[in-house]
Amino acid sequence: MTAATKLRFAWLEVTGLCNEFCDHCYADSGPQGNHGTMTPQDWQNVITQLADMGAADVQFIGGEPTLYPHLDDLITHAHGKGLGIEVFSNLTHIRDHLWDIFRQCGVKLATSYYSDTADDHDAVTNLRGSHRRTRANVQTALALGIPVRGGVVAVRQGQRTAEAAQDLLALGVREVGGDRTRAFGRGSRGAAPAIADLCGHCAHEKCAIGPTGDVWPCVLGRFLTMGNVRETPLADIWAGPGTTRVTADITAVHGEGAQSCTPPQFLPMCGPCQPCVPTVQHCDPAEADSPQAGPATIAAPA
Predict the structure, then answer these.
(1) Which of 123, 201, 229, 248 shows the smallest number of beta carbons within 10 Å?
(2) Which Pfam family is an annotated match for this chain, by its short name (predicted)?
(3) What pLDDT, in 10s, does the model give residues 69-97?
(4) Rounded distance, CA 230 to CA 125, Å?
């Protein structure tokens, strides 16, 4: 792995504010979060730099990105720069004008879905009514012709993850994948983050940028800072000593040629892992053949 690879994709974590408070949240976001120190102009500058660097896609994340008041402007700016756009949202709080922006700018949506029952889903999100709203907005998006990807994260025993995946497919979601709880943020249960818990493919053609401008190798690797876009142009960070150091540290633990497992719940630029489909319990390619792996979820037939 080298820092000289082309940057194709970036997660843009525009806020740490979320209306849910999931026990396993890798970003440790929730109702007490905030929008950080990045201004709307800072984010527009980053998006312009990504386009100038030849990036293909961005994904707006949080927290809950739809709670960020300038999301519509950033989507419009990214669309104007020719970038593919996905918004990873819990789909509980979609303002009416955002639906128009999503359609006008060809936005794709991705969401987490924890169970086919409201009680199980809401127990994970710690927000009563979240299952009903998420499910209803999945249906709204599909009715509007907006593509939706679903991710089912195994968090609790008896959560009905397989049934959750089948429910999404029955609604018309054409791509459903799975993951397990990752040992980061609240999901770590207080343990220090470790490079060994990453997939090993971090910073390979991708990076994440947080609400304070810090640049990370991926959304889970936020303890590995490569630079800050409020201080240094992104191209200089990507080709700079911070990225070289971080990628060397990751390679030292995972070795060269780490498999391109891309938690959480895959990248819009690559779709499900190949050649095997991720399972509800695991998305690690190395674990796909494990007897402990759960039932696989599949894309809906064309």
Answers:
(1) 248
(2) SPASM
(3) 999 999 999 999 999 999 999 999 899 99
(4) 33
Q: Is residue 15 part of a domain?
A: yes
Global pTM value: 0.86
Residue 149 three-state SS: strand
- Rounded Cα distance between 77 and 273, Å, is 30
Task: Tell me the C-alpha to C-alpha distance, in Å, between residue 287 and each of 38, 140, 150, 290.
Answer: 38, 35, 21, 5
| Structural domain boundaries, residue 75 | 9-254
Label residue 64 by pLDDT band (50, 70, 90). very high
Contact between 73 and 94 (Cβ < 8 Å): no
Element (H, E) at 106: none
How far is residue 49 CA from its own chain's centroid?
A: 21
pLDDT at site 287: 46
CATH number, domain of 166, equals: 3.20.20.70
